[in-house]
Amino acid sequence: MTRTPYWAAFTDGIRRTMAAPAELAVRIGFFAVILVVFSSLWRAATQANGGVIQGYGYRELLWYVIAAEGCVIATKPRLIEEIGDDIGNGDIAIDMLRPVSVVSFRMAAEMGEAVVRLVCALSLGAVFGLLSVSAPPSLEGLLAALPAALLAVGCNLTMQYSFAAAAFWVEDAKSTWFLYQKLIFLLGGMLLPLELLPESLAGIARLLPFWTTAYVPARLLSGHAEWQLLIVQLGWLIVLVAAALAAFRAGEKRLVVTGG
Amino acid sequence: MRIILSTFKNSLIEAWTNRRSFWLQVSIMLANDLVWVLFWILFFERVSTVRGWDRSRVLLLFAILTTVAGISLGLLANARKIGQLSAGGELDAALALPIHPLAFLLVRRVDTGLLGDLFFGPILFVLAGEPTLERTAIFIFGSLCGAAVLVGFLVAIGALTLFIGGTGEQADLGFQTILILASYPVDVFGGATKLLLFTSVPAAFISGLPTRLVDDWQWTTAAALLTAALVFASLGVRLFNLGLHRYSSGARWTRA
To answer: Does ipTM surpass 0.85 in this model?
Structure first.
């Protein structure tokens, strides 16, 4: 049976991550620290607030954190910078020699890597959640959260590629990485559920795609079985894939590489 | 001492050479810090106080933390790279000099982006830390002690690479762990985590204790902070010196 290049890139991504257990352990170890920090913070905050903050109790908030942080940690933290460097120094030209779409091929490989990290992070998160509180508040929410977590990683990756394409036009992609990360932190609901933001800011967040990367799976896992959120994610994923493909197509036309 | 000062001066000049890049990276870090401030403001809109910590106290903690990070990771950027440099056999250039290699390594590189923290911390203190002459003096004392603890800790976990091998993964994890733990009020943690913050991952000495001192000066707390600074600084130097006996050159003459 022949494998498509994209499937091959995806499985290679999985293998590559499994072949670097130390790097994976550091990432998952850091995730464990984040869980300790946020569980402590939200426990103290809910205790100080009569047990509930904007409809979230400690149990809901803990499962929210597990999903939000787990989905974000699954992607490379500095992916935008890496892609930007590859564009800036011309390395991307090597990928362009292959008879495949550069951006699709790279995204397939990144998705393979991210899936391994996601599975590890969510497994650890599940153990942490079960030991700290109890099972997720709703079975229906849990079932919806699983595909949402995969869609969240997909949206995150494609959005990072769309941002990174800026490197075809501007010299330093580092700034876009920082900007993107902060948008995920606040408007993506990674640090705080959107319900805790001021109404106007939450309204803006819901109009933008960032909430698909952290808030959606987290909202579902925290016991809110809002299946329509999956449709929103899917819609954004289609738009973001199209945007990344279009941005790279336009950028590749203006790429000038010097030297060999 | 003259060589160290000259090296440090050169590192600063190197960072300043590309002005556009310098200001871009500093601005990015300032924006990064502002987002954290915004996070805490939004957080305390919903929760008035958490175990004695309110918005102004957390902003004070953040002012100290960013100042400590600016000194330890901005001015002494190689502090977090000891593990990586050791694993790559890239210490040769430092070993050939007539000064202590660790002192040279620490002043050899300035991280431009993290200098943004060094600007941000004091500004935030002036704006939100209710500065008086006394509080400012304690702020400086606390930040310097916190920086000594952080540098000592980072050098120590980096030097572990010389004993256990690998490429310094434990140093990366230690770095990320101590920074995130130091970013939150020490009193939200309980039990074993709190014990950890005062011992093996000394995040409490980086931000929590200096914040407590600025708000409420106690000689015993100040003595504990100073002791921690001396202990972790010595630990870093001692482990680095011991580890050097096991160092294998990578035959790479780098700028370290």
So the answer is: no
